[in-house]
């Protein structure tokens, strides 16, 4: 083993630890890996940054814009209307239809966007019908994952592995090359969820009141101001009650019964009732302040938080949100989103009510926000916060819808018949969508998940380093020496197993970028076609059901569905094992080992 190989494997090993620890975002770690290869001399500058111009990176960026145009024009609103009608009739028929539609849509549109589009409707149906959201959200996510492997455009992972194959001299994947095997996975997965999965999914019914769901009654207190209070006539900002103690004022109820929003310049008057959020320690500290009376253990409903056009909303933080790894204080939430106040944050199974300003926000967190309805309307379609407590479907514009669908169909057709390379066809489609105002240039820039692009550009350097130093050949040769007597099908099965186990605890794209070059080297060592090995990596990297962090859509549904980590293991592990068995026997049929 040469010093260069030791260096490459050491850098990748550290990167994997950082991926798992989530201390830094995956795109940051990917760029650090790229820099490490260049600093150590493993890669030249040109080789290190080549990922930014890779066809996979460019295609993924263009597809983000195309998916956003489909969403923003309201092209899929009719599906939501259909779901609302069907969901009220039969739970199982709706679950089946939901998985089919999410699978079909995810074959051509970014799967995260599909889940973001359908989740508010699914939650509304659950609320109207009494169906537990947990029974519907996992099928939604799993359906989107399985649909994503039906075409090349389904996920960024498919495009990434195709780009790696092309960079190693192999043919890039065709748009529908994966479809036969992908449809088998989709059909099998839907059958599993309908026959077995639905009985393994827990039935957890949340409260119909958002405030009860977040246990707000334990953290909201009313302070009654008597004539003896020394700060009567002062603004909230100037009152020692709020400057000296950790309390967030929410509303002020005047003695006339008028309910107004509490701002820092709101003047405190005699006989006001000030509704505040604070913890029990603070209550103990202020209990004996002269001139105030406390009303604790309130039984509040959502209607109690309404005033002057304000009400409660649940907002989930999607995986591409700019809020991730920031705090409410660091992003200056109230200034960034005027009229919105964060009352609580639900992270996995924990609900945080206090010290919110310094709480780091993670993907999948649900924020309980009290906000102005006009401001919330402006947030619809925002990529940083997804409103899940009400329908957020954009208004339909039929001319734009028709043109957008035509462009999407044209891009797919042109690429499928190889009239233009896929990256060029996708870029051409983006330009037309912007020129004909299906999406504005500003929205196009905002729709691109730049973290994903930087991640792709960074992790592509791993494959280059593995190939250049011979590390990929070394690992492949070792595996072939140990398992070569069992034949290429067994080795391909092991590759699929290692990939799906890795992608459930590490980024699917990072897993694919690491294992695709090794898969190519394995095929070379066996003197067989590299296609079945590359497809094993591609399918396994996207079909991750065993953990909430295994794929972005699994993370998105975790908190709204009130799931636990073990729920994914119970439902997802049998499905992953089933797909492993199917892949072992079926991938060589669609993608023979013969060169």
From TrEMBL:
Bilayer-crossing regions: 6-21, 28-45, 51-71, 92-119, 139-161, 182-201, 403-436, 532-551, 571-591
Domain RCK C-terminal: residue ranges: 208-292, 300-385
Topology with respect to the bilayer: Multi-pass membrane protein
Record carries keyword Transmembrane helix: yes
Gene3D superfamilies per the UniProt record, alphabetical: Regulator of K+ conductance, C-terminal domain (3.30.70.1450)
Main location, first listed in the record: membrane
Chloroplast recorded as keyword: no
PROSITE patterns with a match to the protein in the record: RCK_C (PS51202)
GO terms of biological process kind: potassium ion transport
Gene Ontology annotations for the cellular component aspect, listed alphabetically: plasma membrane
Localization per record: Membrane
Key words of the record: Membrane, Repeat, Transmembrane, Transmembrane helix, Transport
GO molecular function, one term: monoatomic cation transmembrane transporter activity
Name of the protein this chain belongs to: SLC13/DASS family transporter
């Amino acid at each position: 083993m040469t010093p260069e190989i030791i260096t490459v494997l050491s850098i990748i090993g550290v990167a994997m630890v950082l991926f798992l620890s989530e201390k830094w975002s995956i795109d940051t770690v990917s760029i650090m890996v790229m820099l490490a290869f260049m600093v150590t001399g493993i890669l030249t500058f040109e080789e290190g940054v080549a990922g930014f111009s890779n066809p996979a990176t460019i295609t993924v960026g263009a597809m983000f814009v195309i998916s956003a145009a489909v969403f923003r024009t309201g092209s899929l609103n009719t599906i939501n209307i259909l779901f609302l009608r069907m969901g009220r009739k039969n739970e199982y028929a709706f679950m089946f239809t939901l998985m089919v539609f999410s699978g079909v849509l995810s074959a051509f549109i970014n799967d995260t966007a599909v889940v973001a589009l359908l989740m508010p409707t699914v939650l509304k149906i659950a609320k109207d019908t009494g169906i537990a959201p947990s029974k519907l959200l996992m099928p939604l996510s799993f359906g989107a994952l399985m649909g994503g492997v039906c075409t090349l455009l389904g996920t960024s992972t498919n495009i990434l592995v195709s780009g790696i194959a092309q960079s190693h001299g192999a043919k890039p994947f065709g748009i529908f090359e994966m479809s036969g095997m992908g449809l088998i996975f989709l059909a099998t997965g839907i059958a599993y969820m309908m026959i077995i999965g639905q009985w393994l999914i827990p039935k957890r019914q949340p409260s119909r009141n958002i405030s009860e769901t977040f246990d707000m009654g334990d953290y909201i207190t009313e302070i009654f101001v008597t004539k003896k209070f020394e700060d009567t006539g002062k603004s909230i900002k100037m009152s020692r009650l709020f400057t000296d103690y950790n309390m967030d004022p929410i509303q002020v109820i005047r003695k006339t019964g008028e309910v107004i929003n509490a701002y820092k310049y709101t003047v405190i008057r005699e006989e006001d009732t000030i509704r505040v959020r604070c913890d029990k320690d603070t209550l103990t500290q202020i209990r004996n302040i002269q001139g105030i009376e406390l009303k604790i253990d309130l039984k509040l409903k959502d209607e109690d938080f309404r005033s002057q056009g304000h009400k409660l909303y649940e907002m989930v933080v999607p995986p591409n949100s700019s809020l991730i790894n920031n705090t409410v204080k660091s992003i200056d939430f109230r200034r960034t989103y005027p009229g919105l106040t964060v009352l609580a944050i639900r992270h996995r199974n924990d609900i945080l009510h206090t010290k919110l300003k310094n709480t780091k926000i993670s993907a999948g967190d649900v924020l309980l926000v009290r906000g102005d309805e006009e401001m919330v309307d402006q947030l619809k379609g925002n990529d940083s916060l997804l409103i899940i407590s009400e329908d957020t479907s954009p208004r339909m514009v039929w001319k734009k819808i028709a043109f957008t669908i035509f462009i999407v169909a044209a891009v797919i057709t042109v690429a499928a018949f190889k009239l233009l390379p896929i990256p060029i066809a996708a870029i051409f489609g983006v330009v037309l969508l912007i020129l004909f105002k299906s999406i504005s240039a500003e929205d196009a820039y905002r729709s691109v998940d730049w973290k994903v692009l930087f991640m792709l550009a960074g992790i592509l350097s791993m494959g280059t380093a593995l190939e250049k130093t011979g590390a990929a050949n070394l690992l492949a040769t070792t595996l072939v020496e140990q398992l070569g007597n069992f034949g290429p099908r067994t080795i391909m099965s092991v590759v699929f197993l290692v990939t799906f186990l890795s992608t459930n605890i590490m980024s699917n794209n990072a897993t694919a970028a690491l294992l695709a070059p090794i898969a190519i080297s394995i095929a070379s060592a066996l003197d067989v076609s590299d296609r079945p090995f590359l497809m094993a990596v591609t399918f396994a990297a996207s079909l991750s059901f065993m953990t909430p962090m295994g794929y972005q859509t699994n993370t998105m549904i975790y908190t709204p569905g009130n799931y636990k980590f073990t729920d994914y293991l119970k439902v997802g592990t049998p499905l992953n094992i089933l797909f492993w068995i199917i892949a072992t026997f079926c991938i060589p049929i669609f993608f023979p080992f013969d060169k």
